[in-house]
Amino acid sequence: MAVQACINGWRVPAESPSLPVTPSELAQEAASAVRAGAESIHLHAKDATGQDTLEPDAVAAALIAVRRRVGSAPVGVTTGTWAVSEPEERLRLVRSWEILPDFASVNWHETGSVELAEHLLDRGVGIEAGLHTTESIAAWKRWPRRAATARVLLEVVEPLTAKSGLARARDLVDAFHPWESAVRVLLHSEDVASWTVLREAVRIGVDSRIGLEDTLFLPDGTRALGNGELVRAAVSLHATQ
């Protein structure tokens, strides 16, 4: 079971003084997460205002800076439509990337996801398939190239409470059957349900992730100083099982 660090996400700097935005900040937080035990890094490249972007120069700068600090740890990026809402423009930008990530997350419910995933695979980029619903799980299972997926992300988004987030996580797990899959599975949630769902991932023996994208707080409710502190807490939870 591995812990992935999601070091910034869609958040903006006003939410946390530790949120990395610039390439140097991303590199520093990524290095801290790897030292704390993260196996891989998931990041969102940002523009000058702190908003997510898929522009090739921004993606390249982020990847180059982070790789200089994390050694052999795989580094991945988002392709979420909140960065680029039009599927054609998103694909055009991704096609223009010259510096490629080790993997990229592709949300299966978003329009154009299959074409984008296949383009990335054809260029040697690993795919993390983001599955938010039982419908997206069924759609991914129908994809002829699903066996080439590097990792499936079972993602519990917008839970109302920790309890409802856990129930949603179990619904996704029951629909996917990780124990029957040859593809690695990572289960995670965000904000109020993040630690509850991480503990569930540990319990059932799948990968987990943590970082300032998913939560700003440690398990005891105190505000995290950075990604390294969050990853260290997650690794400790793994160690106790």
Low-confidence stretches: none
The CATH architecture assignment turns out to be Alpha-Beta Barrel
Top-tier CATH class: Alpha Beta
Q: pLDDT average, as an integer? A: 95
Please provide the count of β strands. Answer: 8
Describe this structure as you would to a colleague.
- With 241 residues, this protein is an alpha/beta fold.
- The protein has a single domain, classed as Aldolase class I (TIM Barrel).
- Helix content is 39%, strand content 16%.
- The chain contains eight helices and eight strands; from the N terminus they run βαβαβαβαβαβαβαβα.
- The protein has helices at residues 23-36, 56-70, 87-95, 113-122, 134-141, 162-176, 194-204, 227-239, and strands spanning 3-6, 40-43, 75-78, 103-107, 126-131, 151-156, 184-189, 208-210.
- It has an eight-stranded parallel β-sheet.
- α4 (113-122) links the parallel β4 and β5 (126-131).
- The N and C termini lie close together (11 Å).
